[in-house]
Amino acid sequence: MARNIFKGLGIALITPFTPEGEVDYKSLKRLVEHQLNHRADFFCILATTAEAPCLTQEEKDKITQLVKDVVNGRVPILKYCGGNNTAAVIEEMQSTDWSGIDGILSICPYYNKPSQEGLYQHFKAISKASPLPLVLYNVPGRTGVNMKASTTLRLAHECENIVGIKEAAGSLEQVDEIIYNKPDRFDVISGDDALTFSMVASGAAGVISVIGNALPREFSRMIRLEFKGEYEPARKIHHMFTELYSLLFVDGNPAGVKALLNDMGFIENQLRLPLVPTKIETKQKMADILERLRL
């Protein structure tokens, strides 16, 4: 029976681009090495923050290989595979080379807005097909449907290879209900940087983080302090980022964190359409916060 190994600070890895719009593999390698050196506990690759819908299959394959080569088994890698066509997700799972990958992240079907029974049947079907442990991803702000705690718990108890859920519904009540009733081998992982402090305090196993791309050392320290029960110093770190949390997402994700990484000298401030860089005033506000915090 599979257990969750994706704990602590997970990085929802961005995809850097050159000024010409090509994938910047050199900057990506440097970024992954920086995150490993500053206490990243696992990586989540080729999901929303990576702008995966705008990447070619060749680019996805090269990014996967690069991350595997740099990580070299030091931390687990969670790779995205999901969609709103159950049969197509299963086909992709069965045709993909999963060597060097430790788990699969799969989103609730988007746009077609299935019922709770539809969500249950979708994930039950792909769990049977999955060659690796599966982490569910509930983000109703993007998919248009919220997977209720009762559905998550039904899947957690019935499907042995479903080991966790990335929860980004914005409801601490829903998180508490899952944590209180879940099996021991199953974990809740925060999908919202701003709620991570509260979710970990309630028993979440960690976070798949956007801000961790730029500030892995600080965000990781907050989580590690919480794991040790040192909530007051952890709360201080959390409050350091209060303004950044909203600024990072005000112009869309990953526009905010890419602007932050650009100010830190890691990447070009480039995205692929339909996404565009964050507004100049937003970027300046984030730069001012970094300067004030001396980060």
How is this structure best described in words?
The longest helix is centred in the first third of the chain and has 15 residues, at 57-71. β2, α2 and β3 form a beta-alpha-beta unit. The protein is 46% helix and 13% strand. α6 (149-158) runs parallel beside α7 and α9 packs antiparallel against α10 (231-240). It is of the alpha/beta class and 295 residues long. The protein is built from 13 helices and eight strands.
The tally of beta strands, per DSSP, is 8
SSE succession: EHEHEHEHEHHEHEHEHHHHH
Helix percentage: 40-55%
User: Could you name the ranges where pLDDT drops below 50 across 5 or more consecutive residues?
Assistant: none
> What characterizes the major β-sheet?
8 strands, parallel, barrel
Distance between the termini: 42 Å
Mean pLDDT: 97
Structural class of the secondary structure composition?
alpha/beta
Q: So how many helices? A: 13
With strands numbered from the N-terminus, the spatial order across the biggest sheet is 1-2-3-4-5-6-7-8
- The shape, in one word, is globular
Share in β-strands? 5-15%
Radius of gyration: 18 Å
